[in-house]
Amino acid sequence: MAKKGNKKLKFAFYWAASCGGCEIAVLDIDEKILDVVEIADIVFWPVALDIKYKDVEAMPDGFIDVCFFNGAIRTEEQEHMAKLLRKKAKVLVAFGACSHTGGVPGLANLANREEVFARAYLESPSTENPQRVVPKTSTKVPEGELRLPEFYDRVKTLDQTVEVDYYLPGCPPAPPLILKAVEAIAKGELPPKGSVLAPLKSVCDECPRNKTKPEKLSIPEVKRPYEVQLDPEKCFLAQGIICMGPATRGGCEARCVNGNMPCTGCQGPCPNEVDQGAAMISALSSILGVEGEREAGYDPQKLVEKVVDPVGTFYLYTLPASVLGGRVRKK
Amino acid sequence: MKVITIDPITRLEGHGKISIFLDEKGNVANAYLQVPELRGFERFCEGRRAELMPQITSRICGVCPVAHHMASTKALDAAFHVDPPSAAKKLRELIYSGYYIYDHTLHFFYLGGPDFVVGPDAPPAERNILGVIKKAGLEVGKEVIKHRAYGQKITAILGGKATHPVCGLPGGVSKSLSEEERREIEKMARSCVEFAQKALQIFDQVVLKNQKYVELIKSDAYTLKTYYMGIVDDKNRVNFYDGKIRVVDPSGKEFVKFSPSQYLDVIGEHVEDWTYVKFTYLKKVGWKGLVDGPDSGLYRVGPLGRLNAADGMATPLAQQEYERMYETLGGKPVHSTLAFHWARLIELLYACERALELSQDPEITSKDVRNPVGAPGEGVGVVEAARGTLYHHYQLTEDGLIKKANLIVATTNNAAPICLSVKNAAKAFISGGKVTDGILNMVEMAFRAYDPCYACATHFALGKMPLEVKIYDHERRLLRTLTRP
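Above: the input entities. Below: the structure tokens describing the complete assembly.
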């Protein structure tokens, strides 16, 4: 791995509200991890190294060259770590969909803390909790006090919490994108601050099925993947199956399509789009239905009704970052 | 009272913190492992499209996404009243074997193994995969990296991608296997079988030939006498993908054997106010707090839980190793927590042998990989995640949306025993106020053996969003309104 200068860099990896898939994505660069540790010392990485919070607190500000931060912000502890690592790192990279746009756990913004707790600790059919105990930030035990970080009402993205320098999209980020980012860091050739470190094209642009996408696409009927036999070569939209490819940024190499399933949008919005869901709804509204549909007896409302679960379909990874943000209406 | 905290605990999946309280003599009064995180999945799964669940729930855990993907897919099979074609079941099991190859390799060499290979009280900067490579040599390191990657590759060939695969659908899988792909998998699986044997040899040399480690394994500090749970096939042999769930008591006798749909009769979950994780127990025995023994409903899952709950392994090489482990450690069941590591490597060998068998199965390249679904209803899907038994339970609406979801994940089953193991280790190793980094790491080894996943165990929670989208034309005339209550 080429590198500018002789001094070894210092990298840190951290996880907040996430699943650990981003850590595995780092390991999925396989033997190239040995090249990475040639050019950089990893100074913090809880999944793999025995370095504790107190060690990070003790680092001088700006000690870490690049911190790769995955996961959204849901608790007091995660917010604290985001602020701490922002201070300790020269460059902060929002790594993966959860820190970039909120990710799947961002769907929790469909409810508030009380509803989360009620479901988890009181209502689940396997839970037996006649005393209606729920976790508290402070508990007195015979030996003293135990503290838990506060669980916030909302899920936030990393850049809604602290200033972010770069974004690596994906759930999880594709290993080739990670390697490219690390190479750019090593050579000191990073793009302007605020950039998303991914190609400027959409998933459709790199999809092997793009050639089967008709020039003028129209969907007379929306189908769900489990309802039909899936054609392994034909564009999903052309099969009537909602695929987020047109509204999703590329760089993932259309891996889901290679598993014969449609894109669900984990790479986030295309360049210059703010709201991925709105962009897809816009794209869909121009292709849903057929020319002269009313005359032909189609009822557009019926067509639209087949688009069940719009939030889960259009905002699976981006609800906290979207203009919607979460649920505001009370029933 | 003096408090020692280990924050965060490291080399595991997810977040955790240990607080150890010392009395005036500097001995341990109590120790708590707290899980300071919660994300909340069950509630926000409500209202989602059922077919998306295998992909949504895989985001509970990126280390064991395939386990959630499969438990979810099987719950959908049950909820849609469909039995997948035989080839689809074999493909799912093949993916699943790939996942075990990757995950168990990850744990032994990256997470838990460094404690043995580099040493429990080695400097913290060396107790990691890089220390393992330094000690065992670059060649071994490269073999580890290669075969972990093979596991991931097997999953990616079939699942689209390894972390968060997409192929599971009710009634089967989205994609069949080509002959070229089959040959590639067969070649990788063959190499993996050899690798797993090597891993067991390393365990032999590093751990079993070291009297200090053997004494540690057998010591009271790392022993818990609990019930054990795991999925078994019709001959009571370990199976990761399908079968009945068997529980044995602390003496090794069968306590109950049940079908996935009966899980609510067997398992209860208990809530404490000092941690975000819940604690499971056997309902018939009851919740007696953080204590072991036959009168306490605590049970353990994961590699040692499965081996204790079964009568053997379904492949020849793994069966030999299974017999050797019980002979060496004094018969069944084995209560030593550190034996989880050994059991994990035996399972690694089984997963490799099983992957090879399946890759050579004439049916594996069949194009018949999906059956049409029936009407949506209710279903439970259970698999053995690498870390233990995993339950997904869904109720669907008429439109095939999720009405209710309940999940009991692998690490939740082990949560109470893990707390107890940490407390016992702290009490055994800390006395007179003497605490070193090496001692604290030996306390951490008590949870690390379980390979806990606190990302999984803090999944619970939430809901659907009422949404109205109005579509206007260029003159701002309302064309359509999409409404969801």
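Note for the figure: Residues 5 and 159 of chain A are 30 Å apart (CA to CA).
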